[in-house]
Amino acid sequence: MQRARRLASVAVVATLAVTGLAACRSAPDVAVYTGRSATVTVAEVQRIWDDARDKLTAARDEAAANGEQAGASAAATAPVEVPFDAPDVVSTLVSHDVVTRLARAQNVTLPADLPLDRAGQSIGLPGDAEYTRLYTETRLLFDQLMQKATPAQTSDADLRAVFKVFEETPGAMPAGTTYEQFQQQVPQEALQTLGRAVTVRDQVQQQLDQLDIRVNPRYDSAEISVYAEPGPNNETLSLVSVPLAGTDTAPVTDAA
């Protein structure tokens, strides 16, 4: 009887300990946890979005002042449209951290001169926006890691995932194209590129597991895009990615 009481006490203590661990990683003002540490706050996500909005507004006002924008008086009173949302910020911040760690381990470095203005134009942002810098560095590092990677054997699921992206993107391929038709048209070189992306994807997943990344569910669409290609209408198509949500047994909770 005495032993039973002791075991029951241990069980209660263990339950409280687990509850405490879950609570310490569920603050609504935290966007991302790495292990037990808050590494990205909701305020930081908002700050990066605000920075892009302010830089876009300044660029629009400067263009209007220089007579480069038609209908300047009406446009100047309307808010600018920021071409990304909060989950995109979380995606970029976590991606930048993870790819920087992988690049350091593989002696991959960024070029001295970053093409910030050109990259900014491709995503609809000024080159001096913080989001532009994070996005540019992330994409350059992933591209270099893919160049060094040994191609993995791609699965049918890997290719079907690419097909699904094209299928859901208007103008990416002829309407009515079946997966079998798409599969037959994919050149060997493209399969090699996909294989390299799969190798890097697996490295990313391993890094995420080691870091124990946990994301606030309000950013449940956040992901690490390993391999992306430009699509129709300047839309970036993420062809190989790793989701950041849905793997947590004790998730960060959103504010009620």
Q: How would you describe what is shown here?
A:
The protein is mainly α. It has a domain at 32-42 and 84-243. It is 55% helix and 11% strand. The protein is built from nine helices and five strands. The protein has helices at residues 2-23, 42-65, 72-75, 86-105, 116-123, 130-148, 156-167, 179-185, 188-211, and strands at 30-34, 37-41, 213-215, 223-230, 236-243. The strands form two sheets. The protein has a three-stranded antiparallel β-sheet with strand order 2-1-3. A two-stranded antiparallel ribbon has the order 4-5. α4 packs across α9 and α6 packs across α9 (188-211). The chain starts with a helix and ends in a 13-residue tail after the last strand.
Q: For this entry, what is the oligomeric state of its chains?
A: single chain
- How are strands sequenced across the largest beta sheet? 2-1-3
* Low-confidence residue ranges: 1-23, 247-256
Radius of gyration: 22 Å
Task: Sum up the structure in keywords.
55% helix, 9 helices, 256 residues, disordered C terminus, mainly alpha, disordered N terminus, 5 strands, two-stranded antiparallel ribbon
